[in-house]
Design a protein that fits this description.
Length: about 375
């Protein structure tokens, strides 16, 4: 019987630590994104340090294509993939409950599609109990029923995310937060600063030989489109409960002026991101969660597309089935926020806030 003398395989955290320590000795990519200045603060990396670095990483992949130590070099560095694995593992480990996070990361498309189908059937059946009064959507489903269903479906995921962020903050040793830290972090998020590749020409996400700003543009379209849609819903809520102006609203009204462009931006952004993801090298990310990441992008696009289709179908017989599908996609998006890649926005913002509160690299204080 022969003995296996090969060294044991490293865990995702151990492999990331090995690669980060080599990067910290080289520092060729120091200006690429927030990860590289942050790693220069220390020579040894605890698990919490790696969790923080992984969530600072935006997987633009510029460092990989610039690196002289990638495969076939004996160091075989692949920082984007190493940090992507740690990042995905941190979302799974810190999520509440963890089992749902692991399930969605590996079976995201099937899980989201099944939930949408089930909930669409539920809302379609519920619409059979039509209210006696109501216009627009509310002629198919009473306003009070929608509120009773969606309020807990919105608030519970936010509570779960808050628990996850608290665990994240403790793990990375996040300190006190000042207003200046928040402003700096929100500025970076709004500009997608870390998707510039460190030189302002964009990143190499889908093509190692070409810099492109397309990924940053598609991210911005998706994020700002989502915020516009959220603002549309919020304005409709104020108009309904405070001003007594009930839906349906005309085209020249705040909910529509915000919601229609926001929906178009979300569709354009998610289609662009999905196309880039199909072109990108899966070996430079966390390949095991590719399905979950794609499911999140498709789900966001489906929410926007069904919303626009529902508005376009106003006054026709298609409103009933479209309303059921749209409400199902919105509810699934809400319910899966703590477990899908959408939680990355919360973790990445927390990482940037923590980074803003730490001393500048190679200095003794702020």
């Amino acid at each position: 019987m022969s003995l296996d003398l090969s060294p044991p395989a490293l865990t995702a955290t151990e492999e990331a630590r090995r690669q980060i320590e080599i990067c910290n000795a080289c520092r060729y990519c120091e200006g690429f994104c927030s990860v590289f200045p942050a790693m220069t603060r220390t020579k040894t990396f605890a698990d919490g340090d790696l969790t923080q670095l992984a969530n600072l990483c935006h997987n633009c992949r510029g460092c990989y294509y610039a690196c002289q130590y990638t495969d076939p070099h004996e160091f075989a560095l692949n920082i984007p993939a190493a940090l992507a694995e740690v990042r995905a593992e941190s979302w799974e480990r810190l999520a509440r409950p963890q089992s749902l996070a692991r399930l969605f990361q590996t079976h995201g498309v099937a899980m989201a599609a099944l939930l949408v189908a089930m909930l669409a059937g539920f809302f379609w059946a519920l619409s059979a109990l039509r209210p006696e009064t109501g216009e627009g959507f509310y002629a198919h489903l009473a306003h009070g029923t929608m509120v009773a269903i969606f309020t807990p479906a919105f608030l519970l995921p936010l509570a779960l995310i808050a628990l996850s962020l608290r665990a994240y903050w403790r793990e990375i040793g996040g300190g006190a937060v000042r207003p200046s830290h928040l402003l700096r972090a929100f500025d970076q998020v709004a500009r997608m600063k870390n998707l510039s590749g460190g030189h302002g020409e964009g990143c190499n996400f889908e093509n190692g030989d070409r810099y492109s700003d397309r990924r940053r543009v598609f991210h911005q379209l998706t994020m700002h489109g989502f915020l516009l849609c959220f603002a549309s819903t919020a304005s409709g809520t104020v108009m309904h409960y405070v001003l007594g102006w009930q839906a349906p609203y005309p085209l020249i009204s705040l909910p529509k002026v915000l919601g229609v462009p926001g929906g178009v931006m979300m569709v354009a952004g998610t289609v662009g991101l999905a196309r880039l993801k199909l072109r990108a090298d899966p070996a430079l990310g966390a390949a095991r969660v590719w399905g979950g990441e794609m499911a999140f992008v498709l789900l966001l696009g489906a929410v926007a597309l069904t919303g626009l289709a529902l508005y376009a179908a106003t006054g026709t017989g298609a409103v009933g089935p479209l309303l059921a599908v749209h409400l199902a996609t919105v509810m699934v998006l809400f319910l899966l926020i703590p477990f899908s890649k959408m939680v990355h926005g919360f973790f990445r913002l927390a990482a940037l806030v923590a980074e803003a509160g730490r001393p500048a690299p190679n200095s003794g204080g702020e």
